Amino acid sequence: MSQIPNLENAPINLSAIRARAQAELETILKNVRGDKCLVIDPKLSGSLSLLVQSSELKKHGAELRHLTAEPIQTDRTKVVYLVRAQIDLIKFICSHIHNDTSKGLHREYYLYFVPRRAVVCEKVLEEEKVHELLNIGDFPLYMIPLDEDVLSFELDLAQKEYLADGDATSLWHIAKAIHNLEFSFGLIPNVRAKGKAATRVADILNRMQAEEPVNTSDMGIPEINTLVLLDREVDMVTPMCSQLTYEGLLDEFLGVNNGAVELDASIMGVQQEGKKIKVPLNSSDKLFKEIRDLNFEVVVQVLRQKATSMKQDYTEISTTSQTVSELKDFVKKLNSLPEMTRHINLAQHLSTFTSKPSFLGRLDMEQTLVEAQSYDICFDYIEEMIHKQEPLVNVLRLLILFSVTNSGLPKKNFDYLRRELLHSYGFEHIATLNNLEKAGLFRKQDSRSNWLTIKRALQLVVEDTDTANPNDIAYVFSGYTEERHLYPNINFHSLQLIFYSSVFACNLSYRRPIEEILRLLPGPHSEIKRGGYASIPSYETLPGSLNSSEKLADGRRSLVLVVFIGGVTFAEISALRFLCSQEGMAYDLIVGTTKIVNGQALTETFIEKLG
Amino acid sequence: MAGVAVAAEWQLLYNRYYRKPELYQMQWKNVDLTRNKIACAPFGGPIAVIRDDAKIVQLYAESALRKLRIFTSSGRLISETVWKNPGGRLIGMSWTDDLTLICITQDGTVYSYNIHAELISTFSLGKECFDNSVVECVFWGNGVVCINEAFEIFAVPDFKVPKTVKLADCNLEELPHCIAVIEPQYTKSGDVEVLLGVGDHVLLVEEDLVQPLAEGMGPFQKMVVSRKGEFVASFTHDGRLLVMSTDFSDVIIEYACESALPPEQLAWCGLDSVLLYWDDMLLMVGPYGDPVRYIYDEPIILIPECDGVRILSNTNMEFLHRVPDSTVSIFQIGSTLPAALLYDALEHFDRRSAKADENLRLIRSSLPEAVEACIDAAGYEFDISQQRTLLRAASYGQTFSSLFQRDSIQEMCKTLRVLNAVRHVEIGSPLSIQQYKLLTPSVLINRLINAHKHLLALRISEYLGMNQEVVLMHWTCTKISASAAIPDASLLDILLDKLKLCKGISYAAVAAHADKSGRRKLAAMLVEHEPRSSKQIPLLLSIGEEDTALMKATESGDTDLMYLVLFHIWRKRAPLEFFSTIQARPLARDLFVTYARSYKHEFLKDFFLSTGQLQEVAFLLWKESWELARNPMASKGSPLHGPRIKLIEKAHNLFTETKEHMFESKAAEEHAKLLRIQHELEVTTKQAIFVDSSISDTIRTCIVLGNHRAANKVKTEFKVSEKRWYWLKVFALATIRDWDALEKFSKEKRPPIGYRPFVEACVDAGEKDQALKYIPKLADPRERAEAYAKIGMAKEAADAASQAKDGELLGRLKLTFAQNAAAASIFDTLRDRLSFQGVS
Questions:
Q1: Fold type of domain A146-235+521-533+553-603
Q2: How confident is the model over B734-760, as pLDDT tens digits?
Q3: Omega of the bond prior to A115 within 30 degrees of 0, cis?
Q4: What is the pTM of this model?
Q5: Which residue in B has a C-alpha nearest to residue A169's C-alpha?
Q6: Which of A325, A474, B425, B832 would staple A465 via disulfide (CB 3.0–4.6 Å)?
């Protein structure tokens, strides 16, 4: 199985998008003739692993290197840099070239920006007097399909740059990526946005349509019916909580990067001492597709069940006489054996983490924080973590949860915790604190928290609609939560519920109470209708329900693209998939995100040492 | 047969027919070719006329001042101007490929005119030409070769680059008999090659090479090179016409003329024959057979084209060319080829004669080629009714032929419509179909707009499905240049009215032109209509509308454009002004700060100072203090910590000045203090392990090193709380596994946070026995239960949990002991008992 996902079952032709990117990359490599040294910035190289295999790159006579501050060691005379437009990376390149010049080496340098040339970077190149030495181009890679229903814009730092630095570059990139999608799949007629960054992206997207219109007349019916833009800022609570789905947990503990998890070979039952292997995780793996979105406890049960039934089949085969077709079925089942082994190995490895008291304690604490009923317990717990000098990320993750659910901390506590943090982790973290404060993630309380209101309001929605309108979204959610309640340790996911209610409040049944709740959540919301499609059903013409009448004429379900600005967790994607699979759901979903994140990764982007 | 009349006008040269239909009756009056210097552009281009100052002519009722007049090929005046240029006699005049009229005067000045007789540019061929007058010029597509009185040869390889190249010196003593040029694009070297008829031979002259050729074959009186530079036609002093390859190795045609007098004009007619013109006779010589003679009683000028020669006289213009094969097959007298029969069939059909059917039956099998020939022949016709008849014949034949490609008639109609439109007397571009194909439609359109025939150009580009943007853009720019008197607002309306015809046209480009024409206000109004910010913003910058540009860039959301504007303003304005501009715009400010933070620290500091953001300056200074530490010169423990601490103290002071940053101020103060203490510690312990660790780490390190005094000092200096102190000390003691000290510490006084730290430290270190010393001292039974659970004592854990009456805890503990069946059952029984209690 490959790390590059199979996209055959995608609701829109994502393989075409990938193929285009592959072709563009190939052209770049072909344009620089002969042997060359290809220097890729490490983050980008991770993204590219979802696009091409490195053997493919080598076919074009490229020697591969990662871009670091160290000068490159190569005897090739042509050097091709492939980098994201970031100043620090450009500085590396400048120092490489200076280094070569000082040694009297003459090389041909090619610099390709991903996804496009940036004035600010070229300014640095000019200041460093290397601009004329470079042949500059761009590689317009605005997004990469991670899976059949997930697109990533690969903007790791979007949230931090926008919130802490006020740098809105990523918003333009997101809009550009969506606009590019529209060129392939038609102008998206309905755009809904919630949150400051989201409404801004909707605004830029509209502007792009005015500047460089997607032709609405000769494209037929647009393939994507609705775009929902959501700002991560609207809900910082969910990602800060531990994910409990199988895929989510894999990410929390082992780190899923670019659709694969890397771990010791011994865990996967391969006896090679100290060797790491990459296990690809995407829907090409049938079993993974089935269990990735389930709660981990359920996964264990499913795996056990499958193993048992297989064993049973085996006993039957060996004891009684079977028809040939029954034998064939059995052999077919055997084919899934490698997948079974893979996931049993992974699950076993995961359970060593999930059974740790420290993890259970953390889950407990998360719940206490989110319930926001006992301020002092939370405060003491976090204080103690700091005193014990637990890993800073873990502390900050809970601290953010604490601050967000309380709309900040009273000044006295705020200053006290900040001081303790600096004392314990060093004064250089004043920059981290500064970032978090600017982003509003850890700050002084300036108003009463409306967290409880939000929580209560949303729970009310669940209770109200539970019986009244069985077709309602909230019902779907309560079903969702009930299912979760069946298993121990996973009773808390009301937050995701809140989040998705807001998604669908934006999206489907636009009902008053939900609109009121939307107002409670941070940031503005907007909705825009675009294009001159008369024949496309819109929400006005449809009742708030999810009847089958919403299906498009050709029998396909219409498609909603949900874009998370600032990242989305695997658990949230799972929840969305769950929603889609509900009966009566007339929509297919595709998730777009700046990056797949978890609480840790998101928090880490804000950590900055002054030194 | 109808063809007879057609074919009667043809002349036969060996086995090929030639014809010379009249293109135009010249529309001009009183133009006498003999009195004037004439320059005709190929591809049916314009004709420039100016009185020849080398000839003595009688002036009638006209001014003594000469006029440069430009006509279309049909003799309509396009423009005229009075020739007042100094520089002596006009030596050479010719059109370049892009229809610029080049005039070269005796003193080597090159004047370039456009088709509207407006002087575009002038340049000089150089001092040598100025000192020794230019005698003769030979032009080609975009260049010229000239020779001066000192017999030096110069070339301008491309008029777009006004640069003169001196060619190799060939030591001439007299003017060569004749000069011919092989265009750079057809030479091996890629540079121009000049052929000089000198003495009895030819000199091939290049930039740095002179080579004698054809020795003894001359002297040559006239030479002319064929269009693609393969052959040269020459006239020798003894009256022979010689056609040779350009390396003079092969003689292809040798023909002895009746007269030894060199012809006035020598020209190629396509590639098939050569024309010689004397006073009243035009002689056409082909490779075989007798030449054809035409008699003219008025002076003519030969204008070579790719497929023939146009013949201009005072009264008319003709086009002498080979009759194409398809036309021959139809109209040749007595032709029974399918095409001829098809053409004949149409005539019968028109006359309602049954013979039409008979003809068709005869050619059934070769109908497609007959249709093809009719279409092809129609293309070569200049006469519209003849075109129509041929196309009708084709279409008639097509109805009986299922195999035929049906769109070729349509294609031909399209092409002919365009050709007929431009051939019209008003436009006067007599293009043949071959010329049109060679010229390409887009060049034709460019020529039309160049001649200000915008409407026709627009119609043609629309008709051919080409982009109209070029035409509209040119029209708009021309309109702006020509409308100096129209006020901005009304001109804008006129322009917008037309511009809206073409979607996606670049308003920015139009605005750029308006700006260049000195109408900055109009430019600003136009650029407002440009939807693409990426086009709009650079233009706004170039017309000095920086503030609008900044606003638009901000709106666009494209940070790249913002940076473009930022850097522009930064360059243009004084720092303080720049600072106040961006300070007012948060997004611009933040982007600037992001860039400056990673690249221009000092400048950023200036910015923060000038805008009164002292805390930001403080942060920068504080950051620098670390960079100072990383400096390899500042090895740890060196006196360089002095400046480092000073920086931090400076930061501290700046923080103090702003009331809102008391926290940071305090932190900076503490940091400075910490560094001092760490520095002292490193000196006393002689170990460089303290600097840049946190306060907590410093305390731990002290304890680990056994330096409790120092640890206590740090604790009091920074008012470390008892809680934190206990955690730190307990963990530090556990690290060095000093269990006795730990126990002593636990007994110092009642620990402020209980015994949990002690238990945790022991458990983490895997010291079960040590842990057991403290677990019983835990106050909370829940904590006790968990502690016991952690060291695997299920029974004790269960007891403690039941004491706490916490069912949930029991459940969780059971999970911890999941692998241990015996332990699990303990929890189950206990929990059952609990829930039972809960119910009762």
A1: Rossmann fold (3.40.50)
A2: 999 999 999 999 888 888 888 889 998
A3: yes
A4: 0.74
A5: B559
A6: A474
